[in-house]
Amino acid sequence: MNKIQMKTPLVELDGDEMTRVLWQPIKDKLLKPFIDLKTEYYDLGLKKRDESDDQITVDAAKAIMKYGVGVKNATITPNQARVEEYGLKKQWKSPNGTIRAMLDGTVFRKPIIVKNIAPAVRFWKKPIVVGRHAYGDIYKNAEIYSEKGGKLEVIATDKDGNVLRNTIVEVDSPCVVMGMHNTIPSITSFARACFEYALDQKIDCWFSAKDTISKTYDQTFKNVFEKIYNEEYKAKFEAAGISYRYTLIDDMVARLMKSEGGLLWACKNYDGDVMSDMIASSFGSLAMMSSVLVSPHGYFEYEAAHGTVQRHYYKYKAGEKTSTNPVALIFAWTGALRKRGELDNLPDLIAFCDKLEKAVIDLIESGIMTGDLAKLCDPPALKVLDSFEFLDEIAKKL
Ligand code: NAP
Ligand code: MG
């Protein structure tokens, strides 16, 4: 059989623990027999990050900026316990944070749907994608607890010393107060990334906020979205047969419950944090959630939404069977390879990615799955496999 040829290398970022264990067999069993796989490999395993003083993470992000598309395995974000476990030089920053800052991206999370796992909301038939703005707001705030209260204000002093101030309220009781911000460039990038993603997936884009109450802050988000849409995307959206609309967030939530899905929900940082977990749990499991970082410059980085599944890794190391579900990792590969296929005009590669995804979904829908899904599925699973047996079954279907 002639293997499918690639033109440009895919940037491959390896990771840690159980997902590292699964990475190689996914390539060996599902990809390499069919594709002449061309990748530029970066080992983001914690040991290599430590040895290189985290330079490897920066190099990997630069490679994505050079080639356009990357696929990333889950990586440990070290805390104190990890510093001791791995004897690290220091508590390195989150690789995802480093890469996101360099690519200037927005994160999109999309559930992978199978028929035998019903969403908790029975109307939902198609994926609901959450696009989360990952900068500012409550995540970079300043807060005060005041015993006596008094005059509470927001103050902005610019670099020329000009002062803008606004009184929030005057109170004479103990109180809490908070200040937060966002920047116009960051909101602009967020809007562009959402419009790019909606165009790429050919789905409608809805942005929600609370501009009726927040007449400057949320109103600015709304205005930036509207301006970018009208100036740069309106014609492209109309040509693709999709639409953009702004909706108050409470109205959005009410409508979403009655909709059949199939849209991108652009969320401010906090809304996206909360709502993406709600959507993930409604559609079943973290292992059935794909994730992609899209930058306004046209770079794409695909990954699974879950972490390194530490608990399973320790079981694996102790020689026990593991039920780790590889579906989101496989979809990270197909997402990245399909994008490579689109950019390089390789219809065979795109068709293979469709076929592999279909093989995975067909297998689960035929009642063969890993333990995490067996707990949720209806009718009950026919066969529950460990991670490696499950990969073998997918390979047979190909
Ligand atoms: P996790 O790896 O997502 O796993 C949490 C739990 O979710 C697992 O114990 C397991 O539940 C279930 N789970 C997740 N993925 C699964 C899969 N593919 N198949 C079956 N079950 C799955 O989160 P964590 O244990 O809190 O974090 C572990 C490490 O991952 C941390 O060091 C963290 O820094 C890192 N992390 C990395 C990323 C990333 O690189 N994108 C994201 C998040 C976390 P049961 O134990 O009930 O089976
Ligand atoms: Mg959350």
Describe the structure.
The chain has helices at residues 17-31, 46-51, 55-67, 80-86, 95-103, 184-201, 217-240, 249-258, 269-282, 310-317, 327-344, 347-365, 371-374, 387-397; strands at residues 10-14, 39-43, 69-72, 106-111, 128-132, 142-146, 150-157, 163-171, 175-179, 204-209, 244-248, 263-267, 289-294, 300-304, 368-370, 383-385. Helix 1 runs parallel beside helix 14 (387-397). By secondary structure, the protein is an alpha/beta fold. It contains 14 helices and 16 strands. Magnesium ion binds at residues 273, 277.
Determine the number of helices (DSSP H or I, runs of at least 4 residues): 14
The span between the termini is 13 Å
> Which ranges are low-confidence, i.e. pLDDT below 50, for 5 or more consecutive residues?
none
Order of helices and strands: EHEHHEHHEEEEEEHEHEHEHEEHHHEHEH
Mean pLDDT: 95
Provide the list of bound ligands, each named once.
NADP nicotinamide-adenine-dinucleotide phosphate, magnesium ion
> How much helical structure, as a percent, in the residues?
40-55%
Radius of gyration: 23 Å
Q: In percent terms, what proportion of residues is strand?
A: 15-25%
Secondary-structure class: alpha/beta
Largest sheet: 10 strands, mixed
Shape: globular
Number of strands: 16
Q: Give the strand order, joined by hyphens, for the main sheet.
A: 2-1-3-14-13-4-5-12-10-11
Write the layout of secondary structure elements.
Elements: E1 10-14, H1 17-31, E2 39-43, H2 46-51, H3 55-67, E3 69-72, H4 80-86, H5 95-103, E4 106-111, E5 128-132, E6 142-146, E7 150-157, E8 163-171, E9 175-179, H6 184-201, E10 204-209, H7 217-240, E11 244-248, H8 249-258, E12 263-267, H9 269-282, E13 289-294, E14 300-304, H10 310-317, H11 327-344, H12 347-365, E15 368-370, H13 371-374, E16 383-385, H14 387-397
Parallel strand pairs: 1-2, 1-3, 3-14, 5-12, 10-11, 10-12, 15-16
Antiparallel strand pairs: 4-5, 4-13, 6-9, 7-8, 13-14
Helix pairs in contact: 1-10, 1-14, 3-5, 6-7, 11-12, 12-14
The structure holds NADP nicotinamide-adenine-dinucleotide phosphate and magnesium ion.
